[in-house]
Amino acid sequence: MSLQPDSSAPSTHIIDGKKVISEESLPAINPATEEVIAKVPVATKKQLNEAIRTAERAFPSWSSLPVEERQKALDKLGQLFEQHLNDIVDLIVTETGKTKDISHIEAGMCVPWLREGGAKRSLQEEVLFETSDRKVITRYIPIGVVGYLFFRVNYNIQSPSKCAAITPWNFPMSLLMWKVVPALLAGNTLIVKPSPYAPLACVKFVEQAQQVLPPGVLNTLTGDNELGPWMVEHPGFKHVSMTGSITSGKTIMRCAATNLTRITLELGGNDPAIILPDIDPKTLAPCICAAIKRLYIHEEVYDALRDELVAYARTIKVGDPAQPDIGMGPVQNREGFNKVNLLRGYIDDCKKHGYRFVLGGEVDPSQKGYFVPITIVDNPPDDSKIVQEEPFGPIVPLLRWRDEDDVVRRANATQYGLSASIWGKDLGQQSGFGVEHGRQGLIAWTQIQTVTINRNP
Question: Model's pTM, two decimal places?
Answer without folding.
Answer: 0.83
